[in-house]
User: Fold this.
Amino acid sequence: QVQLMESGGGSVQAGGSLRLSCAASGYTSRFGFMGWFRQAPGKEREGVSVIGRSSGRTVYADSVKGRFTISRDSANDTLYLQMNSLKPEDTAMYYCALDPGSALSLSPSRYNYWGQGTQVTVSS
Assistant:
């Protein structure tokens, strides 16, 4: 049984920072990629950033490049997302997810294990 638990969300003003965490448990070694996704009200879920669990390679959505940094603590199987220079348009529920596939991808449809999400609200 695989479980993902996100934490670290909250409410901040524009320009502020937050650090999200996602603790993974269970048989996760078969998953090659782990990533962050977000969904704002009335919008589709979108990929934010993904990291290869072995390679450490990363990919970012254009909208967050230069502001967000994904990282992973392999010893504790925990994923992080450092979010700086937050904007109101970053407001969304943020989810972490695992992908058993073989290629780095921001497409949510590839991911088959999801956490419950953590809310991020950025006010102007």
In short: The chain has a mean pLDDT of 95. Residues 2 and 83 are 26 Å apart (CA to CA). The radius of gyration is 13 Å. DSSP finds no helices and eleven strands in the chain.
